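How a chain folds remains the central question behind the approach discussed here. The record that follows shows the chain in one-letter code together with its fold in token form:
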Amino acid sequence: MRSTYLWLSRLMALSVVIQAMTIVFAVSGLFHWIGSKGGTLDESVFKSWADTPPTFTGAIGHGIHLLAGERVIPVIALLLLIVAFFAKVPKGVAIAAVIFVLVLAQAWTGLEGQNMPYLGLWHGLGAFLIFGAAMAAAMMAKKSPSDAAA
């Protein structure tokens, strides 16, 4: 179980990196589409996004970011928390619980950001906090039980 905890924590950190990559790809593509291709981003684009998504380079990044943030990462966080109870990693349950709460807050700020733009500040910071906590979890799991006791 300790190795499962280790790999789930590493997967969490990697997921945060992928999230950052996909959203920057999407925003860069959006700016390129507007600035170089004459694209227009208005309410009609938002309303039709689900049925007819834009085709600019990077547009898929929005979908990947949303899917991973709403579904994949919360599942990883929940699995990590469950495994933590059996993995016997020092402070493993506490770190996994912190990650789980941070992920819930991250999902909420991501979904509510268009209604409250200042939540975007937390959303950016939250990514760093989740990444750091996931790396801390991985480091704790990687230590041998005798190292942790010392």
DSSP finds six helices and no strands in the chain. The two ends are 21 Å apart (CA to CA).
